[in-house]
Specification:
By secondary structure, this protein is mainly α. The protein has six helices and two strands, in the order H-H-H-H-H-E-E-H.
């Protein structure tokens, strides 16, 4: 099951309209629509708000969820990486990323020199 499907199921089970959930979370209906259609995923702060609204916890929201990917996700100091199947955490400070940034900066410097 995807996270979007699970969110829609929770909302329908609780009898909460898209409008009411958007109001409760202080977020647009379009954002919730994107989450429920798996076009995007809520950030950790919104996941915590959703869990609270549905009277559950993030563990239950992510339990048995497939293919969820959060970049360096932290939930109030706890990592929930173990709770979702195929869950990955992007390490945005990886040596490869840093090397790529440095290489890009060098290329930008060369291009700027040509423009002088």
């Amino acid at each position: 099951m995807t996270l979007g499907t699970k969110l829609r199921n929770y909302r329908n089970k609780k009898g909460i309209s898209l409008e009411k959930l958007a109001h409760e979370l202080n977020i647009s209906k379009a954002a919730i629509g994107k989450w429920e259609s798996d076009k995007s995923i809520p950030n950790s702060e919104n996941l915590l708000k959703i869990a609270d609204c549905f009277e559950t916890d993030v563990y239950e929201l992510l339990k048995n969820v497939e293919n969820v990917n959060f970049g360096n996700a932290k939930f109030k100091g706890h990592s929930y990486a173990g709770y979702a199947e195929n869950f990955t955490v992007n390490n945005t400070t990886s040596p490869e990323l840093i090397e790529s940034i440095v290489d890009n900066q060098k290329k930008i410097t060369v291009l700027m020199e040509f423009q002088k």
